[in-house]
Amino acid sequence: MSTFEWKGEEYNEGQITERQFVIKSGKKPVPGIIWTPEASKGPIPLVLFGHGGSGHKRVARSLMLGRRLAGVSQFAMAAIDGPAHGDRQGPGEYNQNTAMTEGSVDQVIDGMVEDWCATLGHLTSLDTIDGGRVAYAGFSMGTRFGIPFVATAGDSLRCAALGKNALETKDPSRVSASAGPRLQMDAPKIRLPVLFHMQWDDELFSRESQCALFDLIASEDKRLIAYPGPHGTSTPEAVDQWCRFIEDNI
To answer: Which pTM does this prediction carry?
Structure first.
């Protein structure tokens, strides 16, 4: 059983409201943040956003997407810190290998899926949120945890924007922390509309392995977009495609 609490005061800028929250249960608290239109009328759709590795819930891309979806789409967007990220990071500097392997790969993934399910449950119980219109978006680490979450959430979600991940990594030192077997198991369970983003020159994942992951997704409506550039690149045109896909399918 978990509880939901608002944290601090809301912040308003440019007709967008930003507010932090925390979900508490028997384990470590889950810190989160939500952006909403300041003057929304009636319940609004919700987008859950999973940030990438070494980021946090309010990293620049989260902030940009939150403001874009709240200000233009008139949706709510929420993000939570990943394991050992943001306000869940312990003493010392961030270490991605440690963050990915606090326990077995499956234990870390299962814990994050549980956190997202709790977030989904608490936020859709708010009067301001339309619990029947929810989407997930997350790339790189946001897909590592996102594919298992989307597979678990099933019909609770309308669509998902995923990508920048694969069944195998190019880096031999990270093979032991690979989520490939888990993604291979969960991707075929996904049947809702999916937009999959691939970076053509990704230095972390090969094109072949990214396409193999895309092929496993069982959705009848699934779309692959590819852009030149390394793993961390996301052009404004690509971001606009994510948002328009969600707007059309949520």
So the answer is: 0.94
